[in-house]
Design a protein that fits this description.
The structure is a homodimer. By secondary structure, chain A is α+β, with helices and mostly antiparallel strands. Chain A has helices spanning about 10-20, 65-80, 100-120, 170-180, 185-200, 205-215, 225-235, 250-255, 260-270, 285-295, and strands spanning about 1-5, 35-40, 45-55, 85-95, 120-130, 135-145, 160-165, 215-220, 240, 280, 300-310, 310-315, 320. Chain A has two domains: about 1-145, 60s Ribosomal Protein L30, Chain: A (2-Layer Sandwich), CATH 3.30.1330; about 155-320, Alpha-Beta Complex (Phosphoribosyl-aminoimidazole Synthetase, Chain A, domain 2), CATH 3.90.650.10. Helix content of chain A is about 35%, strand content about 25%. In chain A, the strands form two sheets. A seven-stranded mixed sheet of chain A has the order 8-10-7-11-9-12-13. The first copy, chain A, has a five-stranded mixed sheet with strand order 1-5-4-6-3. The relative contact order of chain A is 0.16. Chains A and B meet through strand 1, strand 2, strand 3, helix 2 and strand 4 of A and strand 1, strand 2, strand 3, helix 2 and strand 4 of B.
């Protein structure tokens, strides 16, 4: 763990007081070394993912620091969930705006602590620096799977069924709600949606079901259609999605009812991003059991399409194919 | 590998064209998955370190992007060098300023390629996002050591000798030179110093000697005295440094000659940071062989002090102890 002091907050002291208590495992060496050391674990693969977040881009400048910390951990845990990996630990790089104070860091550390405890991960190391720009965070998360058991994006095969967990579009609607840009939804529903944006739920409960029965999986961060396209590209297949089947929450359904064109509105939900659900494929013979196992674990899975020969993703509504390229499925 | 598009550059395309060619190992899954997967390596420990860099703070806004990329890799490799670990691979998070162009990214990727090839590391994954702030980079580096062989900061024992590699103070003088703030040094010397700041040399050649004979080691990033203090704190000992013995380069020596107070000037070099040398301790009986082995590997090691009971770091010049706390050894 290294640090760099700047006027206002002594980063060495901030690490000692705020971060060291989060680094309980022996591998972290109490954050007092240049590096962490992770012993080999024969029979297991280490699964590693890294996500970055910038204030004003990936979260709102006014978002409470504890929620920002928890969103950062959770978006990374979502990557592990999609790979059916068991969470283990993380490295944190934080560039704090010059002049940001002790209280923000304290709340940020409290958020880390809360989700560490909830999800069973521990801080292993990192770096704290200052920046003339916005708060910029990068987290590298580590997890374990039994050797060879990681679910990849590249495992989808023609004939398989496409499923998605939870509900889709809440993250995008939640961002609009948090910005006060949403109409036709009552305040309680808007608050619920904003909560989905601010504090996603990594679908770690799906691990056993995914390991047993999934072909391919990815987490829905860029948007359902974009992440389905990642599976299609990595697997060399085509995914056909029926937006009629898209699982939506009750607040999203209310929003849908106020929209003039249902197909366009569904496409917006399916391209919005920030859902942190899991899109996956499975052999059709496994689907019923997969859904039952997921339900027993507390997560709804919904069939939304199938895998065929070809490339890319198609999305249809009431039997008609939508022009999703024109719908801008890569929007940020 | 995930990405987020913004006006100007398509990050998906940038990753596909610029970064995928850097991710040659099977563990990276061609950057086409949510995560990398690293098989267990029985008999070895994985050594992991993470450093962040911000434009205008850790490098100059005008520094060429390829040199920035190489400095980023090298500062992280320096952590591995201090731990006597063999470089393996890295994860990269890059937050590019909105509006930065393709050419910058291309040069940045070219810098990564150059140092990947030189040091035998490979890109394993990461994240690319946009920021309204300055270019912000975070790299997580992975290396291997035989099980239990990592050199720690906590291994220093009373009676040991303190040594440092290369020369000290060039990084700090180099920053001044790059900013045109240095006097009493000719242009060629100033350019050499600026090069030391822009492109440090990770002392990976020391690995075998460190593994065989070092008690504790740390890389000199925060400044020799601060990093010696890290060893003292982690080991529960005191390090006594003699600034008379500080190894300095010829350009730094010329600068020293122009300074009114030698002790103050030496303290400035010893607290300046950005040297990316290695400060280490070794049993006194090992010192002669350690120096010989390092020299055979092409790296000079210099005795600069000893380890005693106590805590913290002391620095003396011509037998008189300096007040390094007042000298501000934690300056940024």
């Amino acid at each position: 763990m290294s640090a760099e002091p700047h006027p206002g907050v002594d980063e060495f002291e901030a690490i000692a007081r705020l971060l060291r208590p989060l680094a309980g495992s022996p591998e972290a060496l109490g954050l007092m070394d240049d590096a962490a050391v992770i012993p080999s674990r024969p029979g297991f693969d280490l699964v590693v993912s890294k996500d970055a977040m910038v204030a004003g881009v990936h979260f709102l400048e006014a978002d409470p620091p504890d929620l920002v910390a928890r969103k950062l951990i959770r978006t990374n845990l979502s990557d592990l969930a999609a790979k059916a990996a068991d969470p283990y630990g993380y490295f944190l790089a934080a560039a704090w705006p010059q002049g940001s104070g002790w209280l923000e860091r304290e709340r940020f550390a409290a958020g880390l602590r809360k989700d560490q405890d909830q999800f069973g991960v521990t801080l292993l190391g990192g770096d704290t620096v200052s920046t003339p720009g916005p708060l910029t965070l990068s987290l590298t998360i580590l997890g374990w799977t039994p050797s060879g058991a990681m679910i990849r994006r590249s495992g989808a095969r023609p004939g398989e069924t496409v499923l998605v967990s939870g509900t889709i579009g809440d993250g995008w609607l939640g961002l609009k709600a948090a910005r006060g840009e949403i109409e036709s939804v009552d305040p309680a529903a808007a608050e619920w949606l904003a909560g989905r944006y601010r504090l996603p739920e990594p679908r770690l409960e799906l691990r056993d079901a995914l390991r047993a029965r999934a072909g391919a999986a990815a987490d829905v961060s860029d948007g359902l259609i974009a992440d389905a396209a990642h599976i299609a590209e990595a697997s060399g297949v085509k995914l056909r999605l029926k937006l009629d089947l898209l699982p939506v929450s009750e607040p999203a359904f209310k929003w849908l009812q106020g929209q003039p064109a249902r197909a366009v509105a569904l496409a917006a939900l399916a391209t919005g991003g920030d859902d942190y659900e899991i899109v996956l494929t499975a052999a059709t013979g496994h689907v019923a059991l997969l859904i039952a196992e997921a339900e027993a674990a507390g997560v709804a899975l919904t069939v939304i399409g199938d895998v065929v020969d070809g490339e890319g993703v198609s999305a249809s509504f009431e039997g008609a194919e939508l022009d999703i390229a024109r719908a801008g499925w890569r929007h940020g």
